[in-house]
Amino acid sequence: MSDLEQQPSGHDEPHLSFRTGWLRAAVMGANDGILSTASLIAGVAAGGGDRVAIVLAGTAGLVAGAMSMAAGEYVSVSSQSDTEAADIEREKYELEHNPESELEELVAIYEFRGLSPDLARQVAVELTEKDALGAHLRDEIGITDLSPPAPVQAAVVSALTFAVGAAAPLIVAAMAPLSGLIWWVGIATVLALALLGALGAQAGGAPKLRASARVVIWGVLAMAATSAIGAIVGTSL
The pTM is what? Predict the structure, then answer.
């Protein structure tokens, strides 16, 4: 367990920031899965596609989207991890070759945050003696072990949640009457997005209504846009 995780507390005060890494990947993956697949299905249905074409398009969207999400998250989080690793190595070098300058940097940081010059120097000296690298990573660069980059975890979570999200409108499209398929998919998508927004907000400790409204509004706009384009293209072919 890290020093940050061992910090004592005078009372029970749970924080949820440690969830931001996997929560962001999970919510983004599921939201994209629901929204992109539902929009794709709505566009094909509005263009006059039969059930085979609609389900095939939705299935292709599920597979392609899941792989795209996995690749995108892996590359993005790996880049973040590489950047942090480079910063850590650079800070190690500076601490080894310019310890006095690094100490003055900490003093200046603590003075800027409101400590008196004497107290800022005392804090900087004591933290440097205990863990110089940790102090500089935390207070100079902003790197903590609260939510370390995890590329593989982010990729897997994004792919799985995208697939699960995409399965909802796809199942509805495979079972709903073809004549009213767009409406069935649209209603199911709005309900799924609202539920996802509420669950994500609850996991992150944020207001549920605002989170649900946000994803529902953008979902309706996306489906309306693809339906309109599908109808225009379908009538012109």
Answer: 0.71
* Contact in structure between 176 and 189 (CB atoms under 8 Å): no
Q: What residue type is assigned to position 76 of the chain?
A: S
Residue identified by tokens 């000296």 is 125
Confidence of residue 2 (pLDDT cuts 50, 70, 90): very low
> Which residue's entry shows tokens 């792919």?
159
Selected residue with higher pLDDT from 18 and 30: 30
Residue 17: band (very low, low, confident or very high) from pLDDT cuts 50, 70, 90: very low
Residues 66 and 162 sit within 8 Å (Cβ to Cβ)? yes
Q: What is the DSSP string of 191-222?
A: HHHHHHHHHHHHHHT--HHHHHHHHHHHHHHH
Of 29-38, 79-88, 142-151, 155-164, which gets the smallest average pLDDT?
142-151
88: Cβ contacts below 8 Å, ≥ 6 apart: 133, 137, 143
| C-alpha to C-alpha distance for 215 and 25, rounded to whole angstroms | 15
Q: What share of the chain is helix, strand, coil (3-state, %, to 5)?
A: 85, 0, 15
DSSP assignment string, 150-197: -HHHHHHHHHHHHHHHHHHHHHHHHHS-GGGHHHHHHHHHHHHHHHHH
